[in-house]
User: Which sequence fits this backbone?
């Protein structure tokens, strides 16, 4: 019996191209996914409770100002002085006076610090200001 020449020359091969393509696609996916991580702007405070608060969905575009129980000021999660905070708010108002500002004040924060921040917002024509209060769904106390 004669064998065909084609049968003898054929060998099974595994192509590496699809595997390399898959690895590169996974690499690109993970690089993009890690770049989209949002900055944590919350500070560790005990929020005041409110029965009449209006529930709003969390928004990543809002400016977050924090006041701790000791009276320390935070802008976007970073500690700042009152002068620096005023400068940052002025810059925000220069870019967009309709920018939403969220005030996270500790329940034990000195009231005059809260009033100072609200006055700065009004002085810079930032009228879209909200004060965050305790919400059972988002702020579970442990």
Assistant:
């Amino acid at each position: 019996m004669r064998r065909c020449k084609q049968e003898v020359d054929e060998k099974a091969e595994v192509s590496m191209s699809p595997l390399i393509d898959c690895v590169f696609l996974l690499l690109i996916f993970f690089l993009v996914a890690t770049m989209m991580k949002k900055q944590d702007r919350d500070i560790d405070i005990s929020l005041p409770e409110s029965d009449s608060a209006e529930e709003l969905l969390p928004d990543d575009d809002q400016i977050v100002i924090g006041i701790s129980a000791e009276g320390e000021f935070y802008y976007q999660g970073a500690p700042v002085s009152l002068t620096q905070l005023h400068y940052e708010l002025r810059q925000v108002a220069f870019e967009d006076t309709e920018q939403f500002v969220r005030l996270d004040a500790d329940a034990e924060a000195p009231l005059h610090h809260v009033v100072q921040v609200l006055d700065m917002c009004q002085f810079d024509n930032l009228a879209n200001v909200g004060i965050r209060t305790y919400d059972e769904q988002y702020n579970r106390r442990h």
Observations:
- The first strand starts at residue 63 and ends at 67.
- Residues 41-142 form a domain with the Nucleotidyltransferase; domain 5 fold (CATH 3.30.420.270).
- The mean pLDDT is 78.
